[in-house]
Amino acid sequence: MTANNNENTGSQYASKKPKTRRNVHPFKRDVRAKKVIRFNATEEDDHALYERLRTGNTATYKSLKSQADDLLKVRKTLPVFQHKREIMTYIESNPVTVLIGETGSGKSTQIPQFILEQLYDKKKHGSIAVTQPRRVAAINLATRVAQEHGSKLGDQVGYSVRFDNTTTARTRLKYLTDGMLLRELMMNSDLKEYSVVIIDEAHERTVLTDLILGFLKSLMQGTRPDLRIVVMSATLQAEKFSEFFDNAPILFVEGRKFDVTQYYLKAPTDDIVDAVIRCCMQINQGEQLGDILCFLPGQEEIDKAVAIMEKIAKYVSEESPVPLIVPYPLYAALPPMQQALVFAPIKGFKRKVVFSTNIAETSVTISGVKFIVDSGLRKVKVWRHQLGLATLLTVPISQASAMQRSGRAGRESEGKSFRLYCESDYLKLPKQSEPEIARSDVTSPVLMLKRYGIDDIVNWTWFENPGKEAIVMGLQELYELGALDNRGKITKRGEQMALLPLQPHLSSVLIKASEVGCLSQVIDIISCLSVENLLLNPSPEERDDINERRLSLCNAGKRYGDLIMLKELFDIYFYELGKSQDANSERNDWCKELCISLRGFKNVVRVRDQLRVYCKRLFSSINEENEETRKIGEDSDEISKILKCFLTGFIKNTAIGMPDRSYRTVSTGEPISVHPSSMLFLNKSCPGIMYTEYVFTTKGYARNVSRIELSWLQEVVTNGTAVAKQKITSSK
DNA sequence: GAGCACTGC
């Protein structure tokens, strides 16, 4: 994947007709004739750039400066640095510039610094925002750039991510997550402190990045025609960004990476795990030493592959003189300790083989990888608006994704990539993956736009319009939650919901709890729900033991379900284990015993602290004395009150128990099963259930399930009540 | 009888 392969890629877009737009852009006159400018790279290892250098807090100005001088030598070798003047000329003379920089071009660290220098040189006001899709990236980049700039983190250069803000009044260059920039947009609608906004990793097309692009365009057409924007992207999706911003110029900077040779199957395979194992064995026999990274769609395939490999590896290396294969699984739900094993270099005549989900495609980098084995598959969550249901599908990846996966073998030296599909099938793959927003629930984005004051959501400056159906379902949902009135205007409740760092349904639960006086309990539960992978997946051998332990600890949870169980677990973690001197190791042991993520619970406490601060600000009428923190007991009145609060947000996510002990959803009458991870999986005596998630895999599963009484469905008062009532009566 | 990946003043 050198730049040469990309020479003609522009033509794939050539037949696309530019969409006609209703508005004339105020910046149109500045735009130059569109052309793609290429810069060539020099040969050099880019890892010098990313290796971490430590600055203590005690670092003096002089030592910071001399460190920055040393780093300047490294910076000067970067491809972007060598074309600094040309790049800056474009950025200076165009309102929007699209910059395509391959891995190792140094775009994320250097371009923001060039612009910062320019602001200083020209004595201009305002600061620079650089958005990232992930927290770690924002933190690492800011740390590195502060060193290069010769300043302490938080002085001229800082970062802002949830729970962690190092920026000060002096900060001129700010790395932040795109969720954070959206928050800032909600508070300060024209981003007046920034003169330049840089959107990095735009090709990943996360929902939040797409939303920011839309907001920036509408800002430029409205109150901020002076705003400068740089869209930075790794792959060639440049035309779409350029077109969106009225044919902004596209700059191309070559990166520094090594060649990766591609191999394809001659005939397709139908057993992907078997094919992956065979491929690894072949590499192990025929290729030089170097680690293998295998991409598989999900946990099931990964666990299976690891189990098979463990059995074969020892036998094979005893039979013939090949390296001993050491297999590792890697996926997000894996306990962090086990994830960490993947990064340790392996010594001796051995070969590390990592079986991974998409997590290793962008979020996690493993060094030492020389070979890629790519199943060509991934799992995606697709939201079905009509059913209010998420489906988890295994689908073929895109060409861009296949290239990204292959590229993982070329970070340190030349590599090889084995694609377990035919080349003809590769060519049939879509160029890019479908953007996330096209397959997501847009209730939350729609609420953001309403809060921002947009009336006509369908015709907003969407970078990618999710479609009328999705938007209408979002509006309907918000109306039923009481966030919008019957004219579609945002209500006071909606304003509050938009300000809370929660999905609208949970925000609505929180507001209800503040009204009926069980706020602190509900905050604890919602905090647990907000943390992914809090309860980890035990291995099949431990599974029954751990389920048993969890059940025996949570008496109320056993009867009322997962939400109450989460509160019981939180109470033990927070109150009972928090008291002793040795709280940390006690908590650690306890988490291990129950297969709970300790890091997860630490995050729960941070979310809880943040929510408590927000609630104090938002619901000032609430008397704090009545809201003192309390542990949950087994008082059924109190538990009913809490569950009814949840019912106001999740009235649509309810199902009724049938005589044959199955459940059918209230809204559509579809059969639904309690997920086996639920406390209520074995409990067959609930009159009804409420769940926070409805996911279709092999069948429809309810997750985070609670027991409800059918009479509650009629008590809950929201705009949605009428609908629910009608459904209940007609289903009887 | 089962769990793609991120993220929020």
From TrEMBL:
CDD domains: DEXHc_RHA-like, SF2_C_RHA
Keyword flag GTP-binding: no
Annotated spans, Disordered: 1-27
Superkingdom assignment: Eukaryota
GO molecular function: ATP binding; double-stranded RNA binding; hydrolase activity; RNA helicase activity
GO biological process: positive regulation of transcription by RNA polymerase I; ribonucleoprotein complex biogenesis; RNA processing
Keyword tags: ATP-binding, Helicase, Hydrolase, Nucleotide-binding
Polar residues bias: start-end ranges: 1-14
Keyword presence, Transmembrane: no
Class of the enzyme per the UniProt entry, highest EC level: hydrolase
InterPro entries the record matches: DEAD-box_helicase_OB_fold, DEAD/DEAH_box_helicase_dom, DNA/RNA_helicase_DEAH_CS, HA2_WH, Helicase-assoc_dom, Helicase_ATP-bd, Helicase_C-like, P-loop_NTPase
Catalysed reactions, as listed in the record: ATP + H2O = ADP + phosphate + H(+)
Helicase C-terminal domain span: 259-453
Protein name: RNA helicase
Native source species: Saccharomyces arboricola (strain H-6 / AS 2.3317 / CBS 10644) (Yeast)
Lineage: Eukaryota, Fungi, Dikarya, Ascomycota, Saccharomycotina
